[in-house]
Design goal:
Elements: E1 2-10, E2 17-23, E3 45-46, H1 49-59, E4 64-70, H2 77-93, E5 98-103, H3 107-111, H4 122-128, E6 131-134, E7 155-158, H5 159-165
Parallel strand pairs: 2-4, 4-5, 5-6
Antiparallel strand pairs: 1-2, 1-3, 6-7
Helix pairs in contact: 2-4
């Protein structure tokens, strides 16, 4: 897996101060994407053990609330295989930190149903993340007043509650940090 950026103090992609990893590779190609260079699966640098350790070091301080993973597209199968291992270690080392994942895929239609997004670790990843921001960015639905997303079709999903209750639990802006 390649990544375009590792931001060690990010306040734009989830509540509080977070570490943000921007993975490379995306097949959505949303119109007016804010990060089109990450469509290329080999954009940036390879995500090595050195980078992984740098990410863990950045997550360690108490003031860091969690990890946000964006793209590119984290749920491209080639990215999922690397992220699954990363999330396992984050859960083990930092159980109090939250994991947010941004995806152009939708939960019900693509991540939980048969689609090109699914692979052998998709279900496991969905159990390890706290919040999924799903749906492609749609320029015609752009709304800069929304928290932590760019267009009105995108949802902020509480994955723990969704899996526990067996139905999609969408958080509204007033309930997010």
């Amino acid at each position: 897996m390649y990544y375009g950026a590792l931001k060690k103090t990010d306040i734009a992609n989830g509540p509080g101060v977070r570490v943000a990893l921007f993975v490379s590779g995306c097949t959505h190609h949303c119109k007016e994407c804010f990060n089109p260079e990450t469509w290329d699966f080999t954009y940036g640098e390879e995500f090595t053990d050195v980078v992984r350790n740098e990410l863990f070091e950045a997550l360690a301080p108490d003031y860091i609330q969690g990890l946000s993973v964006l793209g590119g597209e984290p749920f491209e199968p080639s990215n999922q295989r690397v992220l699954a291992e990363l999330f396992r270690v984050v859960r083990e080392r930092f159980p109090q930190k939250t994991i947010w994942v941004y995806s152009g895929y939708t939960l019900e239609d693509e991540l939980m149903s048969e689609s090109r997004a699914r692979c052998e670790v998709t279900d496991e990843i969905l159990t390890m993340i706290d919040v999924l921001v799903d749906g492609e960015f749609v320029l015609e639905k752009k709304n800069i007043s929304l928290k932590f997303r760019g267009s009105e079709n995108q949802r902020i999903i509480d994955m723990k509650a969704t899996l526990r209750e067996g139905k999609t639990i969408v958080l509204d802006d007033s309930k997010i940090g």
